[in-house]
Amino acid sequence: MNLGAPELLILATTLIPLVLVAIALTGNRPRADRFCRINALPERPADVAVVHAVLRRTWVSRVAGGATGLTLGVVSGIKIGGAFAIGGAGVGLLVGTMLGIAVATRTPRAASDLRHASLAVRNPSDYRPRSAIRVTVGLAVIVIGYATFAILTAPGSLGVTVVIFGLAFATVLAVPLGGYLQRRTVEVGRGEIDDPGIRVDDALRAASVRGIHYATVGVLLCGLLLAGYGTALTQGVTTVRVGDRTVAHLPPASEHTTITPNLSADPTVWYIAWTEPGGVTKSRRIASTETVAFGTLAAGPLLAIGFWTSVVGLIGALVAWSMSAKAWKHPQRVPELAAA
Predict the structure, then answer these.
(1) What's the CA gap between 115 and 194, in Å, rounded?
(2) What kind and span of H or E run contains 233?
(3) Cis (ω within 30 of 0) for the bond into 196?
(4) How many Cα atoms sit within 13 Å of 288 on the Cβ side?
(5) No. of H helices and E strands in the chain?
(6) Which of these, 99, 79, 105, 267, lies nearest to 174 by C-alpha position?
(7) What is the CA 67 to chain-centroid distance, rounded?
């Protein structure tokens, strides 16, 4: 079987996301012993038990939040179309992941006679990756700028893509939401524990903050995916042609287009029909002795840029989701914070 460039491109853009999902789902069951080794934590039985309980609770909460968000996203988007369901699923999955991690933050311990007070201010920026702010703010600016450019350069009506671009803009809200959840994770009160226990507790919080950060990045990349898809829809609209003339542009994302009667009948009256997003079928009558046919509005590089932007956004969101799921496998960036 000989595969040309288009077939290879379709195969790659189908297989790459599947491979990334498989990688994210395999070998990720949290392990307390590995977490303690990575963060150079004292492996006291009580600490290992706490790490095991917190990692398991975070894993369950993250999966439950992601699954709930994914389901809600699919249900909300499927009424408009399959692509909307994919975008909604991605945003829902990552927002649900953020919330799930944040809900599981508390690390309660049995009360003891030890009391510990600290006046040190814990800053979320010390717990997340060093370039976190630059990455999230930069991605937010790119999403807003690209979506705005795509709207301004649309050759016809926006139609249902208004919803797509609106959702792309809305993903920027993940930045303040993620910042709030990270701050809450860092600042939530501790139980009555000794100094080594505080070091363990701090490492667990750092893992949660990293997970929330990567999920925030994933939401923004979903916004890039939506903006790219909206660009492809507005730049690659279906046209109605009479002879060599374009007489109409169909709304973006229209499908199931038909022309009757049969072209070989040499008719003088033509009926065109199409189905708009949401399942609404519309038709139009055209009287002409010339051939009536559907075509595609040639938009040059903008259409290709929109397509590749959506591909990059999809793959990037999957990578960010995988990194969020595996945030517990990375050491705390500033471990001395616990002793402050």
Answers:
(1) 7
(2) helix 195-235
(3) no
(4) 21
(5) 9, 6
(6) 99
(7) 13
Q: Please give the pLDDT value at position 138.
A: 93
295: β partners = 239
Percent of all residues in the chain with a pLDDT value above 70, rounded to a whole number: 67
For 81, other C-beta atoms within 10 Å of its C-beta total 19
The model's pTM: 0.76
Return the pLDDT at 143. 93
Specify the amino acid at residue 108.
Answer: P
Instruction: Identify the CA nearest to 56 among candidates 32, 33, 26, 27.
Output: 32
Q: Dihedral of the CA atoms 56, 57, 62, 65 (nearest 10)?
A: 140
**3-class SS of residue 239:** strand
pLDDT, one tens digit per residue, over 137-171 is 999 999 999 999 988 887 777 777 788 888 899 99
What's the one-letter identity of residue 66? G
In tens, the pLDDT along 67-86 reads 888 888 878 777 666 667 77
**310 burial via Cβ count (<10 Å: 0-12, 13-18, 19+):** buried
Q: What is the edge-to-edge ordering of all strands in the sheet holding 292-296?
A: 245-249, 238-242, 292-296
Question: Which comes out higher in pLDDT, residue 301 or 220?
Answer: 220
Torsions phi, psi of 328, nearest 5?
-70, -15
